[in-house]
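Lay summary. Proteins are chains of building blocks that fold into shapes, and those shapes determine what they do. In this project we predict the shape from the chain. Here is one chain we studied, written as its sequence of building blocks.
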Amino acid sequence: MPIIELKTIINSDIETCFNLARDINLHQKSLEHSKERAIAGRTSGLIELGESVTWEAIHFGVKQRLTSIITEFDFPNYFVDEQASGPFESFKHEHIFGKVSDNQTEMTDLFEFESPRGFLGKFANWLFLKRYMTDLLETRNGALKKFAES
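And here is the predicted shape, written in a compact code that computers can read:
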């Protein structure tokens, strides 16, 4: 099961970073290149514990839908979203926030996923999917950092 760990230092307070990471509108804006949009559940604003969102996006030239739910929530330190339905066998995305100073936050993403289709899925992970997901998270984090620091 691939695990992606990313750390991003953001020159902004922890509460702002936490809220931007769960902001549906910013998520859509940061992934415009994949035409990602919220189509069901919480479709705008800040997602909360127990809420779900269904995303529709184009990846690898195919329109896909994924529903995730917020399963853990500790403001402003930590929240988790997990796939309820979608193209993965499973995924768990942990968002961890640490205060570096009054106006600097370390945001850590731990993204663990399992591809469907057994051996073929594992081969796809190795061949391209882990890199693709890493690039997607880095794009999103870059947009979040830019917005938080502006």
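What the prediction tells us: The CA atoms of residues 73 and 79 lie 4 Å apart.
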